[in-house]
Write a structure and sequence with these properties.
The chain has about 110 residues and is mostly beta strands. The protein has a domain of about 70 residues: SH3 type barrels (Roll), CATH 2.30.30. About 0% of the residues lie in helices and about 45% in strands. The chain contains no helices and ten strands. Strand 7 and strand 8 form a beta hairpin. The two termini are about 15 Å apart.
């Protein structure tokens, strides 16, 4: 079970995009990286392909950011928070915010 999953709302805590909020669109598990909406945008030069009708040019795209550089957003406070795991009475393992103990997985 991962602390940050696809669809989570996160905030960048360090780097060139510090302070930006976004939603996790993809998790690259083997490299501990995630892709966040409108964070870590880079420009790539793309060659056109007339056989498929693709136009060439400069394309902006999102690149993965290391998981240590982001933090989950606490839904009640709206600020960055640490995540922990605990077991409920029915035996389910859930994520919770360490600052106020609120369960993230319903």
């Amino acid at each position: 079970m991962r602390k940050i999953r696809q669809g989570d709302e996160v905030v960048v805590i360090t780097g060139k995009d510090k302070g930006k909020h976004g939603s996790v669109t993809k998790v690259v598990t083997d490299k501990n990286r995630v892709v966040v909406d409108n964070v870590n945008m880079v420009k790539r030069h793309k060659r056109g392909n007339p056989m498929t009708g693709e136009a060439g040019g400069i394309v902006e795209k999102e690149m993965p950011i290391h998981i240590s550089n982001i933090a989950l957003v606490n839904p009640t406070t709206g600020k960055a928070d640490r995540v922990g795991f605990k077991f409920l009475e029915d035996g389910r393992k859930v994520r919770y915010c360490k600052s106020n103990g609120e369960v993230l997985d319903a």
